[in-house]
Amino acid sequence: MHVAPSEQLSATPAGVASAPLASNFLRAIVAEDNRTSKYGGRVVTRFPPEPNGYLHFGHAKSIVLNFGLAAENGGTCHLRFDDTNPLNEATEFENAIAESVRWLGYDWGDHRYHASDYYAELYRLAEWFIAEGLAYVDSQSPEEMRARRGTLTQPGTDSPYRGRSASENLDLFRQMRAGAFPDGAHVLRFKIDMGSANMNLRDPTIYRIRHATHHRTGDTWCIYPLYDYAHGISDALERVTHSICTLEFADHRPLYDWILERLADGGQLSRPLPRQYEFARLNLTYLVLSKRKLIQLVDERHVDGWDDPRMPTLVGARRRGFTAAGFRLFAERIGVAKAGTWIDMAVLEDCMREDLNARAQRRIAVLDPITLVLDNYPSGQSEECIAPNHPQHPEWGERPLTLSSELFIERDDFAEHPPKGFFRLSPGAEVRLRYGYIVKCVGAEKDATGNVTVVHCTYDPDTRSGTPGAAARKVKGNIHWLSAAHAVPAEVRLYDRLFATPFPGFGGSAAERMSAPEGVPELSPRASLGDENDDIDDGERTFADDLNPNSKRVITAFVEPALQEAAAEEHFQFERHGYFVADSSDHVPPGKPVFNRSVTLRDSWTKDLGTRKGTPT
Ligand code: ATP
Ligand code: MG
Known about the structure:
Layout: H1 25-35, E1 44-47, H2 57-72, E2 76-81, H3 91-103, E3 112-114, H4 119-131, E4 135-138, H5 142-147, H6 166-178, E5 187-190, E6 205-209, E7 223-225, H7 227-237, E8 242-246, H8 253-265, E9 275-279, E10 282-284, H9 291-299, H10 314-320, H11 324-334, E11 341-343, H12 345-359, E12 361-363, E13 365-366, E14 369-374, E15 382-388, E16 398-404, E17 406-410, E18 430-433, E19 438-446, E20 452-459, E21 477-479, E22 482-483, E23 488-495, H13 510-519, E24 552-559, E25 571-574, E26 578-582, E27 594-600, E28 612-613
Parallel strand pairs: 1-2, 2-3, 8-9, 10-11, 12-25, 14-20, 18-21, 23-27
Antiparallel strand pairs: 4-5, 5-6, 6-7, 11-28, 13-24, 14-17, 15-16, 17-22, 18-19, 19-20, 23-24, 25-26, 26-27
Helix pairs in contact: 2-11, 7-8, 11-12
The protein binds adenosine-5'-triphosphate and magnesium ion.
């Protein structure tokens, strides 16, 4: 996998002195545990993705947090695939996930694990729980189980199978494993407390029958452990110290502790045990981050696949030209909190600008060209003007830009009837051709429909940039240009935000939007617990209604010849336009240049949103 050498591992953009790390509650906990030597100074975290999709921006927050905490403390962070549901999981997703983590700049060393690595041990421990009288086989139908589960306000009632003897349970569980029963016939449950105020402690299911081929273990198993059971034990087996997950798992922590405490008391695990901590998941305005919605975007072809540059996936971000350092900067800047927050998309875009500003060489592109003729410049003649590759990095060198009598400029750099405060070209006005001469507009040609086709100027030979006295004459406007005979056509994809409203699916008036965070539900814990997950659907408005119809525009632009040599994934600032990246798959140097706009130079979206707090959960 290719990582640009300049992508050094820091939250700070290339070339910017690194700031001290701000404290947050997790850093404070780790520091305290180190001070008391709770884990003998060890810090082991893990990032536990389910290999059933591509990573999104929310995962980036979790990755930076987990790998960052470990790295800051000389510890390790494990990449653990939480592959307990054979139905949707695939090696293809695993590989893409691993590559995205590496792209973000992190390395798990030898610590690449799978929940499925522990299936045999998890099974053995399940038999141990049965033998201890702490688990039983339940043969109720799912409907019966649901009916006895109770509600948030009402306790549940015991299953009629709760009193089965350990030997009967063991016999049934072994038959479950041996494939004697169809899917759904029985489950294994913990025997905890059907009256608990915490629903997660009402005899949670820990094994179910699923006659399905697993992408790693094949047909070895036809019973699979559930997340809550597999997760804590996987943490303990890997001797994780700090198990960090998102807020919706806070109610699962008592179960996490119950499992590990029983096993440690029974001599099945050694202490100190890992501890779970919860932080607020990332919610970003103008985006959706739930896997279900991302799948829908791809399946319904609202985007061109998982790595569409508009997708909030890490493969999409990379293709868009967002940078790993930009994500690390973003994660550091937004911090980690215990209460749900909404982060304005502009914060992420600003982090990308900041990083790209530091790392991207400058180039010229004219996106919407009209011809400018220098009436007093000898036709057939040309000269080279010198443009620096980066204004703050003279050591990065410079390149020549050929000037001739016929140029391309941006259509909107000329106005026949300039509004007040317009300092670019208009009849009689003067501007500097960046890196070239001061020119004065002497007229314009129009076509039959009144569109300006050619702008005429004269240039002042005494004002060439970089020559003595050139700076003596001041003009307010400064525009970019390319020599028409030398410019190279390129495909440029102008990407913008995928959604036009801050809370997709909750569109409507500005006032409604401002109140939306309370209406936007926190995601429920993962579907494998039996909840059908995710979001409230009001049946009418969906997030697809709020797609931005202008999120992608493909144009043929003119670019300076040097851009033909750009390497795929090389970042540039197109002066006065924004940051662009040579497309990773379609850009073919030197014949077929293709650039994607990563982000404009300035935020063109409303600024009134800011970062706002949701209701703590
Ligand atoms: P989704 O909720 O989008 O379907 P997921 O949580 O099911 O994603 P996993 O692969 O299980 O996806 O997540 C791996 C890790 O990433 C988990 O520890 C989870 O807490 C974390 N994570 C997922 N979404 C976010 C988010 N929006 N912000 C921060 N961390 C997240
Ligand atoms: Mg989830």
